[in-house]
Fold each of these.
Amino acid sequence: MKLDPIAIETMLDQLVEKGWYEWPSAISESLCLALLNELLEAEETGRLKKAGIGRSDERQINNNIRRDQIRWLTGETPSQIEFLAIMTNLQQALNRALFMGLFEYEAHYALYKTGDFYKTHLDSFKGQANRMVSTVLYLNPDWDAKNGGELVLYNENEEIIQTTVTPSIGKLVVFLSEQIPHEVLPTKLPRASIAGWFRCNSSTGQIANPAK
Ligand code: OGA
Ligand code: MN
């Protein structure tokens, strides 16, 4: 499948204007279901691991901050290859329109079991930054708002809620990694997603028109 070109333009405008975009039905349900099956199979066969916090050298598990279980995508299956190709298209669109110099995308499956959450955080810190743009794709069919597990995006000083996102299948949330603090509220049912990051070479990491 391909991303809708008109929706890509809207996403680019919104990213410049406010730093985030919530994109419903961005990715086809059939691809999302295939990815969900892989995630559930990884869970059943013990191939997920508890997510950590902090950079690689000081990585640690902290149950009070985040409780999801993850598995990095490697492109080892046709569904992963298709998903990663779609994200490469997105990367090209971001680079063409915003001169972001993104050169790489990394992504992991995440499973939040009942009661799991991820407290407010930034995906990247100014200065150390090479994560520039964050993406989250949701894989949950028939997700009801009362199941919880919303993604909440805040403004830069964490005082104002920008939006509260229901993690429904096919939805892709895109936001600037250094500027948008966000959290995952406790979920009442298992909640599946793919979180990913476009990275830049830190020496060239500039957005032409940063959102404020
Ligand atoms: C993350 C993250 C959000 C989500 O993995 O860094 O913020 O909605 N995930 O799963
Ligand atoms: Mn995050």
Amino acid sequence: MPTPHSDSATTTPDPRLVEVLEKVWGFREFLPLQREAMEAILEGRDSLLVLPTGGGKSLCYQAPALIRDGLGVVVSPLISLMKDQVDSLVGNGVAAAYYNSSLDPAERRRVEKALVAGQLRLLYVSPERLAGAGAEDFLRRLDASDVAFFAVDEAHCISQWGHAFRPEFRLLGPLRQRFPGVSFHAFTATATPRVRSDIVDQLALEDAAILVGSFDRPNLVYRVFRRADLAPRLRKVLERHRGEGGIIYCNSRKQVEKLATRLGDWGVRARPYHAGLADGVRAANQEAFSREEIDVIVATVAFGMGIDRSNVRFVVHAGAPRSIEHYQQETGRAGRDGLPAECVLFYSPADFAGWRRLLRASGEWSDHAASLLNAMQRFAAATRCRHRRLLEYFGETYDSSACGACDWCLGELELVGEAVILAQKILSCVVRLDQRWGIGRVVDVLRGRNNEKVVGSGHDRLSTFGLLAEVSVGELRGYIDQLLDEGFLRQSGDEYPIVQLTSHGAELLRGNLECRLYRQEQPRKQPKRRAASAIEDWAGVDRDLFEALRELRLEIARERAVPPYVIFHDSVLRDLARHRPQSLTELLALRGVGEKKAADLGPLFLQRLETYLQAS
Ligand code: ADP
Ligand code: ZN
């Protein structure tokens, strides 16, 4: 692997970058690694930037494009996002355009003309435009224009080790020879080293600056629940986020339809999204979500690649995903604007058995798939800091002792008294069942269920029958998950896994070891503590004023046929409702307001502020 980029902590950043950031975007600071990534482009040194979703990757190629001579070509697989990105750029006064199959002939000619005339700083294209049949025409136009660099977004699509392999990306490699002296810059949110080195190889990056950021998303609050309590807990989540944007992921179309209907009954503006819907319906639902005409989208994993709504305040998983990579990717769609957002996972062991069946049936089962799935299952059952757990999974160390943003660190899990005795009851039931049965049977026996299966096997005569009759299924299964996670129990066999004691488990049963067990707070109770950051971010914000400004934003967005976040991010609206600027100068001082936007939108927002303040 090439050497990492030199340490820049001791030098001052390129003043041209500082100026562009402030003037065009209204940002006064770089996010981690942004400066390094931008400087690599300014120097024309190949680079790979790995940052989580919301880490600010797009700015890394946008800002340098305004400084370097020539054109920055952005390759992106997401046609639906190009328009939004370009609208945002144009809104900030940047000469940008996109070129893909969605353009009509007249629009296409307009872009071609601007390209040849050298009027563009940034051009977004789909990989198909640059490679394969029919690309030659366009490539000749690029030859004739002064291309300064290529930025390859979602670069993990080039790797078959990634979760979103797109064969057409493989055709990008040969571009290197065609454009000698033009630097290549890759961007991805996929953390695994294998994918990283594959990107470097496939794009033939030379002496590249490899910039890998932290994958922690401190503004995301993670919570995990057993699905037994789905309805009351989901309602709570929706109440906490009334009128705010959210995504609910389901593992099946049937569940999507069921939940979407139920949300409708609850009075939530929600729509379904899955592959079984007609193309037109699906696109319309996505569009409605993007434009904030609805609040919640209930979807299968098919949803998300083309979604750029930055103010998604919650992501719920109504079932466990098949890997931590998927979980990270999907929860990553929350809080891209940096404001607090919540990620709630509801799971049941049935989810994992379901994935095993499905992956087998589709021929995707392998040791690799199994280990990904097991890691996800351990994450769900874990009773430790979720931020730490996620980071450690991706090979990072986590320094903070309490994140303040997960169910564990917020003290939402209750320590169970007499945990050893409870554990011993469970372990001895496993032993009485000869260590030959699955979790379901252990639970049935402990709870004293008289069903046909239990009675038929004579398990109602075991001494552990009904020993924990008063404990709910969800709670009991939670304890078993924890005993598995702590290494007192283990599971073997894939399809119908059985539970067995480990040597640690045997010691615990004999009373030679200690253990702790936790349980979820009961649904009715209030959370003990709230994330400090979640409170802070509304501190000083007049909520009614915020809503009034949000309404104005929606009006403008409708008029201009762009999604609301292209006008202003939520963070800017909150700042407006907090600081109530009275002049353009005061407005410009807010983070996220550049000169073009202040001139273009400032008067409208200042006027609305004034009207509101006079009326109140
Ligand atoms: P990614 O492409 O990595 O998912 P984005 O480029 O969409 O991330 O950026 C995420 C958010 O961070 C956007 O709302 C963007 O405006 C904001 N952002 C980017 N750079 C900065 C910065 N230097 N200061 C403040 N906010 C920033
Ligand atoms: Zn934590």
